[in-house]
Amino acid sequence: MNERIRELSKQAFEYTLDRLNSGLEFRDFQPIWSEKFAELIVQDVFGCIADERFEIYEPVIQKVKQHFGVE
Fold it and tell me: Rounded to whole angstroms, how far apart are CA atoms 71 and 65?
């Protein structure tokens, strides 16, 4: 696993712990972590190509973000 994936996993873990500290059950850990981790990966991928040179891909980027429910 590369360093960026580890960092995204850590961010998802911290997000999940915050949610659990706000009253969610521990059994909810895996689904919350998985969803956040996937969301962070999608955001990171599009962050890599969010560049003027790839402006023509903006409609595709928006469609995929919408499909995955990522802001």
Answer: 7
Q: Which residue has the tokens 């409609």?
A: 59
Write down the H helix ranges in the chain: 3-21, 29-49, 58-68
Give me the tens of pLDDT residue by residue for the chain, a chain 71 residues long.
689 899 999 999 999 988 888 777 778 888 899 999 999 998 888 777 766 666 777 788 788 878 877 76
Amino acid type, 27: R
**∠ CA(23), CA(38), CA(20), 5° rounding?**
10
CA 35 to chain centre: 7
Count of Cβ atoms closer than 10 Å to residue 39 Cβ: 18
Residues 30 and 19 sit within 8 Å (Cβ to Cβ): no
